[in-house]
Design a protein that fits this description.
By secondary structure, the chain is of the alpha+beta class. It has one domain. Strands 1-2-3-4 form a 4-stranded antiparallel beta sheet, with helices on one face. The chain is globular. 23% of the residues are buried. The model has no long low-confidence stretch (mean pLDDT 78). The structure holds zinc ion. The site of zinc ion has 8 residues, from loops.
Amino acid sequence: MSAEDGSKIKSAASILLKGGTLVSEQCPKCGGVQVRFGGKTTCINCGQESKEEKPAQAVAATDSAAAIERRISALAAELADEKDLAIQKQKADLLETYLRILEKMRSLSVR
Ligand SMILES: [Zn+2]
Protein backbone atom coordinates (compact mmCIF):
# COMPACT_ATOMS: atom_id res chain seq x y z
CA MET A 1 0.00 0.00 0.00
CA SER A 2 1.40 3.39 -0.98
CA ALA A 3 1.12 6.74 0.78
CA GLU A 4 -1.55 7.61 -1.75
CA ASP A 5 -3.62 4.65 -0.61
CA GLY A 6 -3.24 5.87 2.95
CA SER A 7 -4.81 9.19 2.04
CA LYS A 8 -7.65 7.34 0.30
CA ILE A 9 -8.37 5.53 3.54
CA LYS A 10 -8.48 8.83 5.38
CA SER A 11 -10.79 10.33 2.78
CA ALA A 12 -13.10 7.31 3.03
CA ALA A 13 -13.21 7.74 6.78
CA SER A 14 -13.92 11.43 6.40
CA ILE A 15 -16.84 10.61 4.07
CA LEU A 16 -18.40 8.68 6.91
CA LEU A 17 -17.73 11.49 9.34
CA LYS A 18 -19.43 13.91 6.93
CA GLY A 19 -22.61 11.87 7.04
CA GLY A 20 -21.95 9.01 4.63
CA THR A 21 -23.43 5.63 5.41
CA LEU A 22 -21.85 2.23 5.71
CA VAL A 23 -23.10 -0.22 3.13
CA SER A 24 -23.75 -3.89 3.72
CA GLU A 25 -21.87 -5.08 0.66
CA GLN A 26 -18.17 -5.67 1.04
CA CYS A 27 -15.60 -4.25 -1.35
CA PRO A 28 -15.43 -6.48 -4.46
CA LYS A 29 -11.68 -5.98 -4.56
CA CYS A 30 -10.52 -6.57 -0.99
CA GLY A 31 -13.62 -7.42 1.08
CA GLY A 32 -13.25 -4.23 3.11
CA VAL A 33 -16.00 -2.09 4.57
CA GLN A 34 -17.50 0.43 2.14
CA VAL A 35 -19.07 3.81 2.76
CA ARG A 36 -21.60 5.57 0.56
CA PHE A 37 -21.95 9.31 0.10
CA GLY A 38 -23.41 11.38 -2.71
CA GLY A 39 -24.08 8.39 -4.96
CA LYS A 40 -20.54 7.07 -4.67
CA THR A 41 -19.34 4.03 -2.77
CA THR A 42 -15.79 4.06 -1.42
CA CYS A 43 -13.89 1.24 0.23
CA ILE A 44 -12.36 2.21 3.58
CA ASN A 45 -9.70 -0.43 3.22
CA CYS A 46 -8.30 0.01 -0.30
CA GLY A 47 -9.97 3.23 -1.46
CA GLN A 48 -11.70 1.56 -4.40
CA GLU A 49 -14.52 3.78 -5.61
CA SER A 50 -17.58 2.73 -7.52
CA LYS A 51 -20.67 4.44 -8.81
CA GLU A 52 -23.64 2.16 -8.81
CA GLU A 53 -26.85 2.38 -10.78
CA LYS A 54 -28.97 1.11 -7.95
CA PRO A 55 -28.47 2.49 -4.45
CA ALA A 56 -26.48 0.20 -2.20
CA GLN A 57 -28.37 -1.14 0.74
CA ALA A 58 -27.68 0.97 3.79
CA VAL A 59 -27.54 -1.10 6.92
CA ALA A 60 -28.93 -0.18 10.32
CA ALA A 61 -26.47 1.64 12.56
CA THR A 62 -26.39 -1.20 15.07
CA ASP A 63 -25.63 -3.75 12.36
CA SER A 64 -22.87 -1.53 10.99
CA ALA A 65 -21.34 -1.19 14.43
CA ALA A 66 -21.39 -4.96 14.86
CA ALA A 67 -19.77 -5.40 11.44
CA ILE A 68 -17.06 -2.89 12.33
CA GLU A 69 -16.49 -4.61 15.66
CA ARG A 70 -16.01 -7.94 13.89
CA ARG A 71 -13.62 -6.26 11.49
CA ILE A 72 -11.64 -4.75 14.37
CA SER A 73 -11.38 -8.12 16.14
CA ALA A 74 -10.17 -9.82 12.97
CA LEU A 75 -7.70 -7.05 12.26
CA ALA A 76 -6.35 -7.06 15.82
CA ALA A 77 -5.76 -10.81 15.53
CA GLU A 78 -4.00 -10.38 12.17
CA LEU A 79 -1.90 -7.57 13.60
CA ALA A 80 -0.69 -9.77 16.45
CA ASP A 81 0.57 -12.38 13.95
CA GLU A 82 2.02 -9.94 11.42
CA LYS A 83 5.82 -10.05 11.14
CA ASP A 84 6.25 -7.38 8.44
CA LEU A 85 6.57 -3.97 10.09
CA ALA A 86 5.26 -2.07 7.05
CA ILE A 87 2.13 -4.22 6.96
CA GLN A 88 1.80 -3.90 10.73
CA LYS A 89 1.76 -0.13 10.31
CA GLN A 90 -0.91 -0.34 7.59
CA LYS A 91 -3.08 -2.59 9.70
CA ALA A 92 -2.60 -0.43 12.78
CA ASP A 93 -3.68 2.63 10.76
CA LEU A 94 -6.70 0.78 9.45
CA LEU A 95 -7.56 -0.38 12.95
CA GLU A 96 -7.40 3.20 14.16
CA THR A 97 -9.71 4.27 11.34
CA TYR A 98 -12.24 1.59 12.24
CA LEU A 99 -12.09 2.56 15.90
CA ARG A 100 -12.67 6.22 15.04
CA ILE A 101 -15.65 5.30 12.87
CA LEU A 102 -17.06 3.09 15.59
CA GLU A 103 -16.68 5.87 18.11
CA LYS A 104 -18.40 8.31 15.73
CA MET A 105 -21.23 5.88 15.07
CA ARG A 106 -21.80 5.36 18.76
CA SER A 107 -21.91 9.10 19.38
CA LEU A 108 -24.50 9.43 16.59
CA SER A 109 -26.68 6.46 17.43
CA VAL A 110 -29.85 7.06 19.40
CA ARG A 111 -30.60 4.45 22.02
ZN1 LIG B 1 -11.39 -2.49 -0.94
